[in-house]
Amino acid sequence: MDLQQYKVIQQSTISSTAIPLNRLQQRDILMPLIHQYAKTLNTDSIATAGSLFLKKLALLTASSSIDYFGFQNQKDDWWSEAYFDLTNFQLLVPYKTFTTLQINWQHRLLIDFFTPIVKIICNACKIPQNILWENIVIRINRPFRFYTTQLPTEKIAQVFNSITECCEEVRPYMSLDDFSGKRQTCCRSYLLLKDTNEKNHCSICPLFT
Description:
single chain, 209 residues, alpha+beta, 4 strands, 45% helix
């Protein structure tokens, strides 16, 4: 298991401050993390913090799951043992023998995990769900960009269809023909100022010119 590029790190011992991943679905756990992340970003906007928190969380969870369970077709269920570490914004996974994956990983990722989190952030941070779902899609697309040059088109389509058939919310932002196109919505990262006090647009931002 090598998912370090997505900040999924195996460790012999898990920090006592790390939180079991699935507990992020609880508002009383999630929102203090987002408020703390707002301090890290040096922003007073909880909407911006909520959007960017989800965008970064999706790298750890969506990118890694699609790579490992989708394209690599691996069955070791590390997800059930994962902990979220806000200090370093990474997932920690213990060294151990994992149980074999017994469930639909796409449903777990998109419906069981992200759907309640999106609803919490939308309601508590006052940010539209379409922005949040496109944040997730941006991270879904990352392993697709790599594997389109490595695997047959049939495998790419198989993984793509398994995701879009599972979750209707991601469909408007995914295209089998383009995994790097311009966004339809803005994640609001431009509201964070650089040291030069210039606004920082993503290269695929619809506001970017």
